């Protein structure tokens, strides 16, 4: 993440980069670019950024809290 300035003159090149089109395994939307790990919502596939932040991350957090709770009850 340190080399943001480096990409300044490569803007047009970046546009031509062929991004593989992926299908989000949660909402079914097609997206390009970085896919996110949908675990624990889905065991396989990739999800889009929006689902990652709106579905996957809250679910992970919820499970984390549950795990903490179960440890307290021991
Ligand atoms: Zn999605």
Summarize the structure.
This protein is mostly helical and 74 residues long. 41% of the residues lie in helices and 8% in strands.
Commentary on this structure:
This protein has a two-stranded antiparallel ribbon with strand order 1-2. It is elongated and about 50 Å long. It has 74 residues and is mainly alpha-helical. The relative contact order is 0.13. The chain is built from 2 helices and 2 strands; from the N terminus they run αββα. It starts with 10 loop residues before the first helix and ends with a helix. It has helices spanning 11-16, 49-72, and strands spanning 21-23, 30-32. Bound molecules: zinc ion (ZN). The site of zinc ion (ZN) has 8 residues, from helix 2.
Offer a few descriptive terms.
binds zinc ion, 74 residues, two-stranded antiparallel sheet, mainly alpha, elongated
Question: What is the secondary structure topology, with strand pairs?
Answer:
Layout lengths: L10 H6 L4 E3 L6 E3 L16 H24 L2
The structure holds zinc ion (ZN).
> Which of globular, elongated, flat, extended, rod-shaped describes the shape?
elongated
Instruction: Tell me, rounded to a whole number, the average pLDDT.
Output: 85
- Report the uncertain regions: none
Q: Please report the number of helical segments.
A: 2
**Radius of gyration over all CA atoms, rounded:** 17 Å
**How does the helix and strand content classify structurally?**
mainly alpha
Task: Please report the total strand number as a whole number.
Answer: 2
